[in-house]
Amino acid sequence: MNEELDSQLSAMFDDELPTAECELLARRLSRDEQLKARWGRYAVMGAVIRAERGVRLNAPLAGRVSAVLVAEPSLGSGGTGRVVRRGGLRWWQPVAATGLAAGVAAVSILWLRAQLPLSGKPPAALAAVSPALPGAAVVKASTGSAGRPGESYVVPHPQVLAPVVVPSTELANYVVAHSMFSTPVARRNLLSAFMASEPGGTGPEEVLDDVKRAAQ
Amino acid sequence: MGADASDLSLVRRVQRGDKGAFDALVLKYQHKLVKLVMRYVRNPAEAEDIAQEAFIKAYRALPQFRGDSAFYTWLYRIAINTAKNAVVSRDRSPIDYDLDRNTSDESYDMQGRMKDSETPEGLVLTDEIRSTVNAAIDALPEDLRTAIVLRELEGLSYEEIAAAMDCPVGTVRSRIFRAREAIDRRLREVFEGGLGRAEELG
Predict the structure, then answer these.
(1) Which chain B residues contact residue A54 at CB under 8 A?
(2) Which positions 103-162 of B are in contact with A (Cβ < 8 Å)?
(3) For chain B, which terminus, N or C, has the lower number of CB atoms within 10 Å?
(4) B166: region left, alpha or beta (phi > 0 left; psi from -120 to 50 alpha)
(5) Max Cα distance, chain A (Å)
(6) At residue A44, does pLDDT exceed 50?
(7) CB B130 to CB A57 under 8 A?
(8) Are A56 and B187 an interchain contact pair (Cβ–Cβ within 8 Å)?
(9) pTM for the complete prediction?
């Protein structure tokens, strides 16, 4: 065998051969069984010098690995495209996952916006209930403008209700209906106070007469 | 020349579909890998099985190897993980490496042999290989022996050996090559004729 070639092989085994020469020798080494056997014996020498005890120096490990790999497709061929393709596709997987998550989040937000009273109109279920709830009516009145959507998500500010003015006829009917539970003095005082609060109203006696007539 | 250039050139060939180049990598690192795995399992035959599995995993993962680290460093990690997984799956405890060190070489060697499933002829051949190489090293001229021992045992680079031996790097390369040639002449006889088991190398 060529001595220069063997010298190169020894240097390559020690990673001391220039890269360009390595390329050429690697090609030959992969095809030349005699050169490969010498390469293997260099490895055995190193194992003995390092006193690697317990390691079988004649183990057919390389032959077994080679036998298994015979059934494997070569890495450069289309058969191993499975491995290469899997590695190549890996980059977009996190991007796709992030995009999917963002899409789900966006749809959820849009759905929630559609359900909540952002436009000032309560949902149908709430609208059906709200007339019975004085508080809800107040909130509806205070958030009536669509220009303040942010306030619809917070607790409504306490509203000062306007003073309730009960019409005199309703009060009179109320007093008559409950006259049996009150003393005459109390009835008179109440009606006097009411008459005094109504501007241009009639006197207490006239009202009392009206009440008596109504009671009859 | 670059560090790991020879391994990288072989790796690139494998990545292009040259399986023969992977044989060269297995031949180069099989003993180191078995020795490494034997930190985790006692039986040399089992260590060889795990090393074989590690090599096959490495081959299949080679398309993802970019050369950012040395090939052996990458292979080393695969072997360690394979050995750990094997230990877990077989419900065995790893050997305490310090315990191995405290054990004398003779008893350790016997321990390995007692559990080894290889044939008596195989054991004899391993012994013969070892004694042949040792005898060949002893017979080397001093400068050749020093150069090959510094390289293989101490792991020094050619430049470091040149500094230690006070000679040019080219001389170191030549000395190491001539030392290997001298040892190989004797070793080849063992493999090719000695016990008729030459086909078992690799």
Answers:
(1) 35, 38, 44, 47, 108-109, 112
(2) 105, 108-109, 112, 116, 118, 122, 125-126, 129-130, 133-134, 137, 148-149, 151-153, 157-158
(3) N
(4) left
(5) 143
(6) yes
(7) yes
(8) no
(9) 0.60
